[in-house]
Write a structure and sequence with these properties.
This protein is α/β, with parallel strands linked by helices. 38% of the residues lie in helices and 7% in strands. It binds flavin mononucleotide.
Length: 403
Amino acid sequence: MKRILGILLVTAILIMACACTVMGEGETKDAKETGTYADVAADAWYADAVKTLSESGIMNGTGGGRFSPGGTFTRAQLVTVLYRMAGEPDAAADGGGAFMDVADGQWYSDAVSWAAAEGVVSGYGNGLFGTNDPVTQEQMAVMLYRRAGEPNTETAADDASDWARAAVGWARQNGIAAGQELDFSPGEAASRAQVAVMTARFMALEAADPQESGNGGTEAGSDNANDVLIIYFSAANTKDIDAVTAATPLIDSMGATEWMANEIHKKTGGDIVKIVPSVDYPLAYNDLADYAKDETDKNARPAFEALSIDPSSYKTVYIGYPVWWYTLPMVMETFFDTYDMTGVTIVPFNTHEGSRDGGTYDLISQREPGAEVLEGLPIRGGDTGSGKAASQISEWIEGLPLK
Ligand SMILES: Cc1cc2nc3c(=O)[nH]c(=O)nc-3n(C[C@H](O)[C@H](O)[C@H](O)COP(=O)(O)O)c2cc1C
């Protein structure tokens, strides 16, 4: 009994210590209010950011009047910072849904719940969120990028992990991950000073240009530029991994359908959202083929992660996917079961290796009888990335009978 009580006590102390580093419970009142800390020199490159975030209660010290600028920050702490930045909206009371390491009632539960529902975090793909892992600099860039609505970016960062390339490119392009002092190194743990500076820069970007940061006017039901949504599933990027690339030379770092979706987005504007299945698909091509075959044979309805938008609220929705086993990937069937697209104009597009659309456009008309389904565009996966495919997409869009 004594032993159990001892373990409980140690656990409680650890939890409290962890919470304090983000909540700043132990710091002096002065430090919190003035944003000045014994270990933050007035002329430090991060001093202004620390002050701004402290004064607004978004990020606090580590106790005892210290900020610990060189210390690391956990993933739960970063999500809490983002949650506070968003004004702590009501969160689903499920402690982050699918994450096994996010229990209800913890200091970070609401924040993780909110971030998962908003599509800001998707965890490691194995049911874990990585609550107490130090957040890396590229993970932080991805979270900010998603928070910004994944705006189109011209530059992808070659030194980042595949899944973080666009985000890091965007963060550099917008000055969030820039500067000698910040010394952005994608795979390294982010220091508390870096977290403060990148967060403050993101807030400044958001305040200066809500469209650029992605947080203005892109939510469902708002006045989108042209009320267009591009939504797609692409296995190669399903979970930040190149499932198909691993086995075929056809596709580079980006999924074929993802490339198509981005090309369409460049030409149409509007919002772009990826459908991410809730479980990891196998990495190797043959394993993926078997797995998908099994799903198709069973007519399964695999779950996908909550979308940050409501696709049925848009006027025109481009819907993209690869052909799998001569038909729609089953996760797309889940999508059509989930959303009643009555009144929406659906424009399908897909990639394939010979089946063209495989009859999927007719299938979509059957699944969504209340929607108008226009003539879609099938492109071979192996042709994606080419100028020819880009021209095909332009011509197709120009010829669409959109009102
Ligand atoms: C599980 C699986 C099943 C596939 N089945 C077909 C098929 O029946 N017909 C076809 O033309 N291509 C098929 N393909 C090829 C994909 O449609 C093609 O590689 C596509 O461009 C992949 O898109 P992505 O990179 O966006 O995931 C299949 C690929 C996979 C992984």
